[in-house]
């Protein structure tokens, strides 16, 4: 999908329930041919529509029949299937005066197999007396139908309000920079997909779900209670390169690494019941080297024998004994039970703010002078002097440090500055980069007589 693509609503139902009439009524212009004769619409038709500032694509489909097996009916059914597959929402239209038919039941049975929202609409409800009959349609399994009269325009506004309410956020909004992209990465079977499912089952508005192949990365969008949109990128499991055998797994690993490149934050899931593995640390290092925010997620915490002090003790031990985890936020959860899964979004939001933080030149230079005064650079062939520190870019933050001898700054001293920076600015989970540059001498001012 690109940013300009509109979301799609397909109107489906058996012949002569008023699909084309409803199509024309929503568009407020006669685009589809209508007739009392059954089966007037054969080819699906798509038109752009809008309601209260929301634009969408509306598809008018041919009537679905099961009794006839002619070539035309088969082609119509195939077109309807394609329309449903491409849709974000299906409007299932029935004849409110005729009551549920066997064909309605068969269509409902097929729609229930699809992973697409369905809005049941009872047409031809011209009079209040007809409304009492529409509750028989609840047997189709899609709740209470929305009563309308497409011919007379009755109930169309309420129908469109319900459609907009059920539609996900527009794709253009979902793919904007406002969405915080979190890639869930880790070894196979650590619970990445389970975590996505657990988060999406929470009381939030699930706004989109765009799957690729079964081994591809899958983007799922949700909106948190504070209005922040998150894109959860579920990826295939990463194993050591030497353990990857077939071409499909190699392609899956490539797609996962591409997901790391396009995310803002990498949430590295660890099956803590198996302990921290070498491959877990390798994945964290890869994400950090890509300049991504990093969160270590200890999943399956419910399988660990513990008391109230276990987690804090484990975090202290990991942070002190594993260098790469020293400034990485560590959270525990059980994706299967849903225990503490919300902490991922809370922590990701904090890291995202750090990735986008702007530091003033004054506070950076103050930090630099304090750090270098308390622990000067070791003496060598030349005395290293630090002059100034300034921020160059965001996501990740890159800082330029001016010195008289950038090539002489020792690696051990750079590590010292990194440690002091993380401690001073409390930016755990946010990768930072220092670039050392030589301070240029100012040219002597020339005076013209």
From TrEMBL:
<dbReference type="GO" id="GO:0005525">
    <property type="term" value="F:GTP binding"/>
</dbReference>
<dbReference type="InterPro" id="IPR016484">
    <property type="entry name" value="GTPase_Der"/>
</dbReference>
<dbReference type="GO" id="GO:0043022">
    <property type="term" value="F:ribosome binding"/>
</dbReference>
<feature type="binding site">
    <location>
        <begin position="234"/>
        <end position="238"/>
    </location>
    <ligand>
        <name>GTP 2</name>
    </ligand>
</feature>
<feature type="binding site">
    <location>
        <begin position="60"/>
        <end position="64"/>
    </location>
    <ligand>
        <name>GTP 1</name>
    </ligand>
</feature>
<feature type="binding site">
    <location>
        <begin position="299"/>
        <end position="302"/>
    </location>
    <ligand>
        <name>GTP 2</name>
    </ligand>
</feature>
<dbReference type="InterPro" id="IPR031166">
    <property type="entry name" value="G_ENGA"/>
</dbReference>
<dbReference type="GO" id="GO:0042254">
    <property type="term" value="P:ribosome biogenesis"/>
</dbReference>
<dbReference type="Pfam" id="PF14714">
    <property type="entry name" value="KH_dom-like"/>
</dbReference>
<protein>
    <recommendedName>
        <fullName>GTPase Der</fullName>
    </recommendedName>
</protein>
<comment type="subunit">
    <text>Associates with the 50S ribosomal subunit.</text>
</comment>
<dbReference type="InterPro" id="IPR015946">
    <property type="entry name" value="KH_dom-like_a/b"/>
</dbReference>
<dbReference type="Pfam" id="PF01926">
    <property type="entry name" value="MMR_HSR1"/>
</dbReference>
<feature type="binding site">
    <location>
        <begin position="123"/>
        <end position="126"/>
    </location>
    <ligand>
        <name>GTP 1</name>
    </ligand>
</feature>
<keyword id="KW-0547">Nucleotide-binding</keyword>
<dbReference type="InterPro" id="IPR027417">
    <property type="entry name" value="P-loop_NTPase"/>
</dbReference>
<dbReference type="InterPro" id="IPR032859">
    <property type="entry name" value="KH_dom-like"/>
</dbReference>
<feature type="domain" description="EngA-type G">
    <location>
        <begin position="180"/>
        <end position="356"/>
    </location>
</feature>
<feature type="binding site">
    <location>
        <begin position="13"/>
        <end position="20"/>
    </location>
    <ligand>
        <name>GTP 1</name>
    </ligand>
</feature>
<feature type="binding site">
    <location>
        <begin position="186"/>
        <end position="193"/>
    </location>
    <ligand>
        <name>GTP 2</name>
    </ligand>
</feature>
<comment type="function">
    <text>GTPase that plays an essential role in the late steps of ribosome biogenesis.</text>
</comment>
<keyword id="KW-0677">Repeat</keyword>
<feature type="domain" description="EngA-type G">
    <location>
        <begin position="7"/>
        <end position="171"/>
    </location>
</feature>
<keyword id="KW-0690">Ribosome biogenesis</keyword>
<keyword id="KW-0342">GTP-binding</keyword>
<dbReference type="InterPro" id="IPR006073">
    <property type="entry name" value="GTP-bd"/>
</dbReference>
<comment type="similarity">
    <text>Belongs to the TRAFAC class TrmE-Era-EngA-EngB-Septin-like GTPase superfamily. EngA (Der) GTPase family.</text>
</comment>
<dbReference type="InterPro" id="IPR005225">
    <property type="entry name" value="Small_GTP-bd"/>
</dbReference>
């Amino acid at each position: 999908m690109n940013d300009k693509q509109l979301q799609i609503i397909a109107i489906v139902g058996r012949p002569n329930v008023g699909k084309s009439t409803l199509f024309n009524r929503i568009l407020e212009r006669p685009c589809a041919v209508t007739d009392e004769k059954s089966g007037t619409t054969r080819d699906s038709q798509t038109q752009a529509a809008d309601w209260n500032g929301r634009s969408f694509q509306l598809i008018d489909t041919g009537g679905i029949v099961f009794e006839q097996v002619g070539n035309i009916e088969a082609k119509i059914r195939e077109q309807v299937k394609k329309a449903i597959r491409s849709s974000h929402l299906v409007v299932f239209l029935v004849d409110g005066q005729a009551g549920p038919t066997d064909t309605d039941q068969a269509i409902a049975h097929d729609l229930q197999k699809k992973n697409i929202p369905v809005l049941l609409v009872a047409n031809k409800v011209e009079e209040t007396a007809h409304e009492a009959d529409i509750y028989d349609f609840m047997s189709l399994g899609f709740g209470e139908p929305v009563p309308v009269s497409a011919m007379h325009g009755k109930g169309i506004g309420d129908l469109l309000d319900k459609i907009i309410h059920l539609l996900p956020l527009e794709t253009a909004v979902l793919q904007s920079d406002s969405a915080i992209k979190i890639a869930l990465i880790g070894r196979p079977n650590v619970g990445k997909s389970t975590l996505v499912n657990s988060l999406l089952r929470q009381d939030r508005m699930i706004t989109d779900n765009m799957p690729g192949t079964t081994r591809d990365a899958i983007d799922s969008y949700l909106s948190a209670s504070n209005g922040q949109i998150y894109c959860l990128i579920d990826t295939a499991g990463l194993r050591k390169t030497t353990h990857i055998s077939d071409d499909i797994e190699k392609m899956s690993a490539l797609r996962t690494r591409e997901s790391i490149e396009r995310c803002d934050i990498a949430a590295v899931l660890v099956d803590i019941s198996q302990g921290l593995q070498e491959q877990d640390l390798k994945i964290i290092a890869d994400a950090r080297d890509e300049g991504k925010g990093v969160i270590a997620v200890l999943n399956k915490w419910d399988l660990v024998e513990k008391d109230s002090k276990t987690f804090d003790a484990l975090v202290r031990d990991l942070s002190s004994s594993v260098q790469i985890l020293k400034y990485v936020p560590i959270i525990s959860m059980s994706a299967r039970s849903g225990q503490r899964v919300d902490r991922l979004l809370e922590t990701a939001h904090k890291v995202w703010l750090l990735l986008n933080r702007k530091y003033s030149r004054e506070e950076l230079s103050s930090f630099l002078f304090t750090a270098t005064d308390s622990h000067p650079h070791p003496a060598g062939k030349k005395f290293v002097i630090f002059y100034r520190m300034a921020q160059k870019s965001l996501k990740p933050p890159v800082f330029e440090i001016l010195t008289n001898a950038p090539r002489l700054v020792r690696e051990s001293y750079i590590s010292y500055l990194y440690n002091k920076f993380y401690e001073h600015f409390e930016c755990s989970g946010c990768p930072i980069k220092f670039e050392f540059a030589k301070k240029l001498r100012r040219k002597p001012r020339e005076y013209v007589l």
